[in-house]
Amino acid sequence: MFKLPAKTVGEIGQACATTGHTIVRFSTDAEGMAATAMPPHCRHLEKEAAFICKKCQLAFPTEAAVNGHQRAVCFAGLAFEQRGHVRLVQLGFECRACHERVATAAQLVQHCASQQHEANTAQPELTHEMEDVVNQITALAAQASSAASPKPAPAPMEAGPVSG
């Protein structure tokens, strides 16, 4: 069970007053998420947290469960279009290098400082052999470029007065 921010509880109440299906996104760390500079190897993540029946406001773990509940209890006999639920989505982060998922900006910062993360994102140093290969490829590319460039056309000869 997770604790929802008061703002999210209010948004759910407003969403339940409307018809149809609604999405409410929330974060357990709204201020931290906005203030955190996203490292290039990380991304924002959305995770379905629950599905809430708009009539009785009970939460279910899956959309199928809330639909079954509504068919049998709250909206028995009504068409799907006449029912509605709130899809509750929790915002978080994912580190693409480590495939680690976290809920808060503080957890992301902590993960990025971990040894596991540093090992996954460290760039290997070039060995002398690798450096030689890179230099050889660069030299070959330069040769190919100069050989492929067209040679300038000879300048046209100017015709002068013909003496006879």
UniProtKB/TrEMBL annotation:
Positions of region (Disordered): 144-164
Alphabetized InterPro entries for the sequence: Znf_C2H2_type, ZnFinger_Homeobox_TR
Molecular function (Gene Ontology), one example: metal ion binding
Listed name of the protein: C2H2-type domain-containing protein
Cellular localisation: Nucleus
Keywords, alphabetical: Metal-binding, Repeat, Zinc
Superkingdom classification of source: Eukaryota
Ranges of residues in domain C2H2-type: 95-117
One CC-aspect GO term: nucleus
